[in-house]
Amino acid sequence: MDAAEKRVRTFARVKPTADFAQDMIKFGPDNKSIDIYIKKDARKGVVNNRQTDWSFRLDGVLHNTSQELAYETVAEKLVSDALLGYNGTIMCYGQTGAGKTYTMTGATAEYKHRGIIPRAIQQVFKAIARSVDSFITVRVSYLEIYNETLCDLLATTTNSGAGDVQMAVVDCPRGVYVKGLSIHPVSHEEDALNLLFEGETNRVIAEHSLNKNSSRSHCIFTIYIESRCRAFSDVRCINSKINLIDLAGSERLSKTGSEGQVLKEATYINKSLSFLEQIVIALADPRRDHIPFRQSKLTHVLKDSLGGKCNTVLVANICGEALHVEETLSSLRFATRMKWITTEPVINVTCDPEETVRALEKEIVLLKQELAMHNNLANRSLVTYDPLTDVQIAEIKSQIHKYLQGAIDEIEITNVRQVQEVFKQFKLIVRQQEHEVEGRLRSKYALIDKNDFATIAAAQKAGVVDVDRHLLGKKDRRELGTRMTLISPKPDGKKKKSKKGSEHSKKEGTRSYVSGRELEAPLLSKSQVTIPIKDLDVKERARSEDTANIDAQPLKPASAEGSQRPSSPPSKPAAFEQFKEECGSEINRIFKENKSILLARKKRSGTVARRINFIRQEMEDIQKALEAQRQERWQQGEYVDETGHLIIDEKEFLLIMKMKDLKEEYRAAYTELQDLKAEIQYCQHLVDQCRNKLIAEFEIWYSESFLIPTYVQKALKPGGNIRPGMIPIDRVTRLEEDEQERFERLQELELPAGPESASFYKAKMRRDQRHTYARAMSSLGQMHKKPGHIAAARSKAPRSLLVT
């Protein structure tokens, strides 16, 4: 990410008006700067030092632009990044009546006049429809801040205890959230637009001199996006959110002439916007340690949305009339300050603890089922894999003691836990014997480290140690010799093992002639255990062959059943793997070949690039050596021949020739690298083309194999009347549509903006129906004392409303 993207992006949108002050407001040729000129007031006198010209540099100026162009310039990239896991914030700021709500929400009368929020919703759901590898869920919320009070515009209950829950802004390690704010899951664009339009009807608006429908509150529409991978059982989740903020307009009370409740609302609005500007100034100053986010509800909610780890975009809505030039200057100053806030967006990847636990539990269950299946095949039905009980541990101890005493030849083992417990008990026995042997030795002998040569020499002089450095106790050598003869008689094979143990114990600094006898039992037990392990391998091989035979037997009827259509279509990842092995095997083979060629070219390109870097470094070293040679020659004096040519020594000549060879090698390697880059680009194109072809063929195959009605399958079989691919799948799936569905389809085709606008117009129609129904209910309530009028009103009511 370059330096230009590590800050807040700012745009200015000029409200179209017939009274645009062309002589005062000028736009730059690149549409990224605004210059404002004000004539000096002659009434102020000759000495007038008031500033008369200003210049503001932004990321873009939107003048006489459509809603579509404004969205593509301001929000399209931010929404695309949000689908990848980056948080995003778009904020509209400006004076009252400058077009903030029109930019953010738009007009619902026509589809082309939609604002940023409806277009962002459409872009998100279009991306979800194109996504194959990811499972994406979307949720929305709509928050209003009115007179420093948090309100939920999508609250499902009103005038009840549940609707009066106190809302509060809460800080947490993952960011800021509003406690008590309802978040609604949506699965289609129409559902999200329904919630948006419902929230718009609940907003607080008022009329004053600058705007007939002035928003009297700050509103934040948030889209929460959660993405998970379909192909893998990955508990990781990519979370992101898009905050779309419509700020209330700042206003000068001297111009609006507000009174009463409107005056109170204007006071709260100006106060919160003033705090917001203080936050912006503090964020733009790198020397500030403390940012006062808690000064107002608005700044506290926007704590993790202004810069930081979030992509932030500001749209400054301004008016072009000369009457509002002071408010225009204020909005542009705010945009300039916002531009200096730095951002460092990061992808939000989290691991759901509950999903992790569920995945591990599921894996344990599957492993237990697999073990049970193997046990049934091996006729071991009484095997359990739960933790060992005290009774089972005592039984294992008893078997180990009997095994060491020679009472039994084998230890019965049925699972891994018993193996672990057997090793644990053996370890305890060995440690116990080591302690006992060490205690007996210390009571009878003085143990000295074998590597302590000075102590050993002193002991030999004192007659305590023999020539072989064997330590002696207070008893004489005769008694020790008798003791050694009692311990040492063994067959020849066992003496070799004892010597090995003695050598090992010498390295450890302990005696070996006592422990050699005790190490005899593990060696014997090892030979005894070898027999059942071999038998077990033979049995396991026989079991695996039987399993293979059993698994091979049902393949014949399964192949017959595979031709039948499943009751429900399989998941797309599983069907995709099946498609690559069957119908798409040829395309998949070509795709893999192209991909392998691409990887080989990339590998070769990396090798050549490293070779070029090595040659460049060698050339630089030779160049430095030549410079040193020339400097030395210049200091000592240069020599020329009779013809006037410079005479150089042999070392410099060899360096020059080597430099020449390296330059030729560098040119050849560079040419090869350019050719490889062209080949890589072409191979990448082929790989992308094969991938798209594979996915397109898979979609056709999946639709024709699992989505077409059963009775149409016969016509699609070889020899049938219809060849696969001849009928568009949208026509096949509508063979059973009724009159209402056919009417809705025709209605979508006849919409002004095409089928893409169907969700928008359906949501608008539902909102109009709710308004009509609400007015009808209010009129019925007023006429509740007149039954005749009620019957007449019901007869005049629309049919759809009566059904509702």
From TrEMBL:
<dbReference type="GO" id="GO:0003777">
    <property type="term" value="F:microtubule motor activity"/>
</dbReference>
<dbReference type="InterPro" id="IPR027417">
    <property type="entry name" value="P-loop_NTPase"/>
</dbReference>
<dbReference type="InterPro" id="IPR027640">
    <property type="entry name" value="Kinesin-like_fam"/>
</dbReference>
<dbReference type="InterPro" id="IPR001752">
    <property type="entry name" value="Kinesin_motor_dom"/>
</dbReference>
<feature type="region of interest" description="Disordered">
    <location>
        <begin position="478"/>
        <end position="517"/>
    </location>
</feature>
<dbReference type="GO" id="GO:0005524">
    <property type="term" value="F:ATP binding"/>
</dbReference>
<keyword id="KW-0963">Cytoplasm</keyword>
<dbReference type="GO" id="GO:0008017">
    <property type="term" value="F:microtubule binding"/>
</dbReference>
<feature type="region of interest" description="Disordered">
    <location>
        <begin position="540"/>
        <end position="577"/>
    </location>
</feature>
<comment type="similarity">
    <text>Belongs to the TRAFAC class myosin-kinesin ATPase superfamily. Kinesin family.</text>
</comment>
<dbReference type="InterPro" id="IPR019821">
    <property type="entry name" value="Kinesin_motor_CS"/>
</dbReference>
<feature type="compositionally biased region" description="Basic and acidic residues">
    <location>
        <begin position="500"/>
        <end position="510"/>
    </location>
</feature>
<keyword id="KW-0966">Cell projection</keyword>
<feature type="domain" description="Kinesin motor">
    <location>
        <begin position="7"/>
        <end position="341"/>
    </location>
</feature>
<keyword id="KW-0969">Cilium</keyword>
<dbReference type="Pfam" id="PF00225">
    <property type="entry name" value="Kinesin"/>
</dbReference>
<keyword id="KW-0597">Phosphoprotein</keyword>
<keyword id="KW-0547">Nucleotide-binding</keyword>
<protein>
    <recommendedName>
        <fullName>Kinesin-like protein</fullName>
    </recommendedName>
</protein>
<keyword id="KW-0493">Microtubule</keyword>
<keyword id="KW-0175">Coiled coil</keyword>
<dbReference type="GO" id="GO:0005874">
    <property type="term" value="C:microtubule"/>
</dbReference>
<dbReference type="GO" id="GO:0007018">
    <property type="term" value="P:microtubule-based movement"/>
</dbReference>
<keyword id="KW-0282">Flagellum</keyword>
<feature type="region of interest" description="Disordered">
    <location>
        <begin position="784"/>
        <end position="804"/>
    </location>
</feature>
<comment type="subunit">
    <text>Interacts with HYDIN.</text>
</comment>
<comment type="function">
    <text>Essential for normal male fertility and for progressive motility of spermatozoa.</text>
</comment>
<dbReference type="Pfam" id="PF23735">
    <property type="entry name" value="KIF9"/>
</dbReference>
<keyword id="KW-0067">ATP-binding</keyword>
<dbReference type="InterPro" id="IPR056524">
    <property type="entry name" value="KIF6/9_C"/>
</dbReference>
<keyword id="KW-0206">Cytoskeleton</keyword>
<dbReference type="InterPro" id="IPR036961">
    <property type="entry name" value="Kinesin_motor_dom_sf"/>
</dbReference>
<keyword id="KW-0505">Motor protein</keyword>
<feature type="binding site">
    <location>
        <begin position="94"/>
        <end position="101"/>
    </location>
    <ligand>
        <name>ATP</name>
    </ligand>
</feature>
